[in-house]
User: Which sequence fits this backbone?
């Protein structure tokens, strides 16, 4: 009983600390989970968020294994009061559960609630435990029919059989009266293979279980090749247009940024079957860190990103900023999303009502990244 009271007190302290001492337009900041609750882990990283029904939210995140670059378990936590409090997490993908003689670790939690369906999907990457990192992973999935309280693993049927990396969730739209889904993915086999490649591409599905290659994203028409990765899909500016904004790095040396450090974008006008050559977004900063790109129901595009230098610079991945682009207009001025003098990265947002967003991101301390998972609320005015 005493230990439980101490845990409740520590959670209250964490919630109070999260809600204070920060600037920015995100409100109602809460700590979903801290790594102190996971003895033996090295980080909590890359959260994702979904709305089940009403105030019932589900957050998923990774719990990293020490010694691995980006591999561990994927857990989910439920809130039934719009993010004010969060329950103890349950496992979606557990590296301790062997599949025969093979032991996998997992990375990059993704949640997706298909429109009109009473099921919640979780996706991630799985990689054999003897690998050092997850750059050579496969897609793995699970579903929940009880709002994220329990999960049933499902083996994906893959038309694309090569290695892949997933970071952002599927994009849903209607085509000829039927739902269709596009999944932004990339690969980085060049990290350990000089003859490998760094390519961004898109998978397509009508079932969320069977995924086939839709097409690759062409490199820019002019200038050097770019390492395009970690793209987010959203409705574009024109009717029927789909746009993807991508994180970037130097193609030959992924440790280097592009010059200048900018996000790149691509557009499809035929349901993801073909894509325009990637081009620089002059107004969108990207210094080798995942950003969020989406569009409100009112048609305003939203870009949330890390300012400053790239990680692992001491001041890399600190404050989160954002920009808005109303329909038919240019990107507006930079605004502060969340700044507390600590490290923050990998924001993901969902729109739960017109202009009303919920957000998650991983946070740390001034000198250390990814010690806890943050949640917050964010509003975009109809006419910003």
Assistant:
């Amino acid at each position: 009983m005493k230990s439980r009271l101490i845990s409740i007190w520590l959670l209250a302290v964490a919630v109070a600390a999260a809600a204070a001492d920060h600037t920015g337009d995100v409100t109602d900041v809460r700590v979903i989970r801290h790594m102190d609750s996971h003895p033996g882990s090295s980080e909590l990283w890359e959260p994702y968020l979904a709305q089940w029904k009403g105030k019932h939210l589900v957050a998923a995140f990774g719990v990293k294994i020490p010694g691995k670059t980006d591999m561990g378990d994927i857990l989910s936590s439920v809130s039934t009061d719009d993010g004010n409090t969060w329950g103890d997490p349950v496992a979606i993908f557990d590296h301790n559960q062997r599949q025969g003689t093979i032991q996998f670790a997992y990375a990059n939690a993704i949640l997706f609630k298909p429109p009109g369906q009473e099921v919640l999907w979780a996706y991630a990457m799985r990689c054999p435990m003897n690998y050092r990192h997850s750059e050579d992973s496969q897609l793995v999935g699970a579903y929940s029919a009880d709002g994220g309280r329990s999960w049933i693993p499902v083996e994906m049927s893959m038309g694309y059989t090569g290695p892949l990396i997933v970071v952002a969730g599927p994009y849903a739209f209607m085509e000829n009266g039927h739902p269709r889904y596009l999944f932004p993915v990339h690969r980085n086999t060049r990290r350990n293979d000089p003859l490998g490649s760094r390519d961004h591409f898109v998978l397509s599905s009508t079932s969320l279980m069977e995924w086939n290659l839709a097409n690759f994203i062409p490199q820019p028409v002019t200038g050097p090749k770019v390492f395009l990765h970690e793209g987010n899909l959203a409705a574009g500016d024109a009717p029927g247009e789909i746009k993807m904004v991508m994180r970037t790095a130097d193609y030959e040396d992924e440790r280097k940024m592009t010059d200048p450090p900018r996000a790149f974008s691509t557009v499809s006008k035929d349901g993801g079957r073909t894509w325009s050559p990637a081009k620089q977004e002059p107004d969108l900063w990207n210094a080798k860190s995942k950003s969020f790109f989406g569009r409100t129901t009112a048609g305003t595009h939203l870009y949330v990103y890390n300012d400053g230098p790239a990680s692992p610079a001491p001041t890399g991945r600190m404050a989160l900023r954002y920009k808005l682009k109303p329909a038919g207009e240019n990107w507006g001025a930079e605004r502060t999303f969340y700044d507390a003098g600590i490290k923050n990265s990998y924001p993901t947002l969902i729109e739960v009502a017109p202009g009303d967003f919920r957000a998650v991101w991983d946070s740390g301390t001034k000198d250390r990244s990814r010690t806890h998972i943050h949640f917050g609320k964010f509003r975009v005015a109809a006419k910003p």
Summary: The two ends are 50 Å apart (CA to CA). The chain has one domain: 2-379.
